[in-house]
Amino acid sequence: MSTARAVQAPIRLFPYERWAPPLPTLARQYRDNKPCPHILLRDFLDREVAMEMAQQFPQASTDAWTQYKHANENKLGMAKRQLFPPTLGSVTDELNSPEFVAWISKLTGIPDLMADPMLEGGGLHQSGRGGYLNVHTDFSMHHFHRNWRRRVNLILYLNPAWQEEWGGSIELWERKDGKMARYAAKYLPLLNHALIFTTDERSLHGFPDPLTCPEGESRKSLALYYYTVEQAGKVVGHSTDYFARPQDGLGKSAMIWLDKKAVDLYSRAKARFGFSDEFASKVLGFLSGKK
Length: 291
Description:
Blueprint (H helix, E strand, L loop, with lengths): L15 H4 L3 H10 L5 E4 L5 H10 L9 E5 L2 E6 L7 H10 L2 H11 L5 E2 L7 E5 L4 E6 L3 E2 L2 E13 L12 E7 L2 E9 L6 E5 L5 E4 L11 E11 L11 E2 L7 H24 L3 H11 L4
Antiparallel strand pairs: 1-11, 2-3, 3-5, 3-6, 4-13, 5-13, 6-12, 6-14, 7-8, 8-11, 8-13, 9-10, 9-12
């Protein structure tokens, strides 16, 4: 009789068997969706896994959370993978695994994608009552890897009881004649819904109206970004670029413009000197006149 132990099969936190057959159709939808290549995938994970992630999502009660509070955003973020609760950490690792990155390359049509184990700018995000994120395009290169070009965002929403009247829908905007025109797609941040989109000059997105959720509630998500490695000097770097909407007044539009210049200034300094996100949030808050 053999005394060898049976090796337990690893838990599959992403249901590849569910998402592999429709992948060619999903890839066409992704490519054709407007205003930028994107797709919303409902029931992204097994519901039990998503519910466990939502239940484990930590409160923003420690200084491990970076406060991104300036004129263009009011949210909290934590990119320290070692502090993630078990299921949140395991799913993050799965979505950064070579197998999943190969899957998302097929979905997006972008070859040779790679994950970012640092979770730079990503990880756990949440915004409470009054939180917002103005419409923007994302920074184009990794702050600490100058030849990494940012290509794809994945945002997994973790809000089991979110109400539409609280706001918080992510809006994808389109330009017309070089100006902000209208939002062309809008998605509620519902539990186990994943929005995946190409990150380029077309991908104007945000939730610019302050949340009206009750005190104690927050809009929660897990964000992962994927890159390609480019030849040295081939990545045209720019920081997060915020835009005023047509309905924003002159005063707000001016504040959006001034604040994004402060963000750009800090982003360049961060890339050069290696400042931390914690320090970044304090500097940006000072520059925008907010505590």
